[in-house]
Amino acid sequence: MATSPERIENAKKNAEVLLAMLDNQKLKYTIQEQSEEKLHVRIHFTGEDIPITLHIIIRADRQIVSVLSAMPFYITEEHRMEAAQAVCAANQGLIDGSFDLNLKTGEVRFRLTSCFIGSVLSEDLFSYLMFVSAETIDRYNDRFCDLNTGTLELQQFLQKDADDEAK
């Protein structure tokens, strides 16, 4: 089914605001794909320890913007059940976004999605979506990595999460 002209126009307006925000913040980014149906922007951040790549995708058909980021490592089979529990614990405390674990491949991915049906999001909201994603990923990526290598036990992961919530 073809996407309506109204949805395409609305997505185009949101794409313009997103790109303006990135330019106004003087951030370096790469446009991976740009069409009437979809805008896909990739941006890199240097976290405290592990680099972060965000994929910001605007889809006209669904009228959504998604921020996605896969961890630069895969959870080994021997640590996937612990990682699944860690992902559940991390997600419980998040207000926006969530982590997903693919039990078959071991990929851990962060995902935050917002709907813009009938509206144009502000630069401030796009900035929020991007920076809250980067901050959340930076808070957890080293923990997931350490859990995967065995340098952090599940109980320690859960305690760090409890300590974060107490702050």
Give the helix level as a range of percent: 40-55%
Strand order of the largest sheet: 1-2-3-4-6-5
Structure summary, number of beta strands: 6
Number of H/I helices: 4
Unreliable stretches (pLDDT < 50, length at least 5) are none
Strand percent estimate: 25-35%
Radius of gyration (Å)? 17 Å
Outline:
The chain has 167 residues and is α+β, with helices and mostly antiparallel strands.
How does this model look, in words?
44% of the residues lie in helices and 27% in strands. With 167 residues, it is α+β, with helices and mostly antiparallel strands. A hairpin with a 4-residue loop joins strand 3 (52-59) and strand 4.
For the structure shown, list the relevant keywords.
167 residues; elongated; six-stranded antiparallel β-sheet; alpha+beta; 27% strand
Task: Outline the fold blueprint.
Layout: H1 5-24, E1 30-34, E2 38-45, E3 52-59, E4 64-74, H2 80-92, E5 98-101, E6 107-115, H3 123-149, H4 154-166
Antiparallel strand pairs: 1-2, 2-3, 3-4, 4-6, 5-6
Helix pairs in contact: 1-3, 2-3, 2-4
